[in-house]
Amino acid sequence: MTDLSTERVLADLELTRGLTIQMLAIGTLGMLVGWTVFSGLYQLTTGNAVTFQFAPESIGWLATPVNILVLVFLGTAILVPHEWLHGLAIRYYGGEPRYGVGVAHFILPYAYATTDHEFTRNQFIVVLLTPLVVMTLVGIPLMILLDWGWLAIPLTLNAAGAVADIWMTLMLVSYPAHIRIVDHESGVRILGRDSDKPRSLSITSLVWDGLAGAAVALFAVGILLALAGPILLSALGVESITIGTPGTLTYLFAFVNTAEEISISLGPGVLSVGGLLGLLYAFARSYRRSKQVPIDVA
């Protein structure tokens, strides 16, 4: 436990307007990647595509608003188990969770589970990652075994909402294990010894690294598939191949080389691959940056 007589604030993260916009941007990138992963996994294992058609077509024009309402419900309902799992982890470590909802700077609706309890570094990492790990490990088997394709929607939103939790985890592992974390409704505060170096927690670099990495990866993957792909496939004697399901975000690439037709097409899956590589690049850069020796601003 940290000696209170030599305690100092090492970092303080507040949900400002700028941070809210950045969280929305990186969450959107995470949503694109998550949807491709979960819907693609469902298609691969069941042979069926995930659709947003919940209401029977027999009800006519009412089907559209009903489908929209179901989507809104699924997107909202996922917050309940997500925050409950945060709270369950908080309670496991001796805290008393408080739950609430809000709209950050009239931009981003959010829900939270917080407490007055102070956590060690490793305890808070468990609190951060519990919803992502538990809901993914439980949701994927249910989606596949019960043929519940609609579960791809809440699983995607849960993963997109966990992008910031993953980033925070990467930041925390660069700190000594003795630090303590104080959570509150609009951010977190990291406390440590007077000998520890203070640091600035900023998600701005993550956002820019993610967007820049995604753009470069998108261009590189597109060029690779459009130019190198046909050459390699022709050399291997492949006449036709389709990667992904046409008409969905999982559709990546199609190639035909026969006497009757020669064609190449790229699908929206290229965006998903670019987004995934962009996120991985941003996480790697953030972790490497956090491991650098900080400047003592005291």
Automatic annotation (TrEMBL):
Which UniProt keywords are given for this protein, alphabetically ordered?
Membrane, Transmembrane, Transmembrane helix
Top-level lineage group: Archaea
Q: Which InterPro entries match?
A: DUF3267
Please name the Pfam families in this protein's record.
DUF3267
Q: Does the keyword Transmembrane helix apply?
A: yes
Tell me where the transmembrane regions lie: 21-38, 58-80, 124-144, 150-173, 206-228, 262-284
The molecule here is called DUF3267 domain-containing protein
Species, as recorded: Halonotius roseus
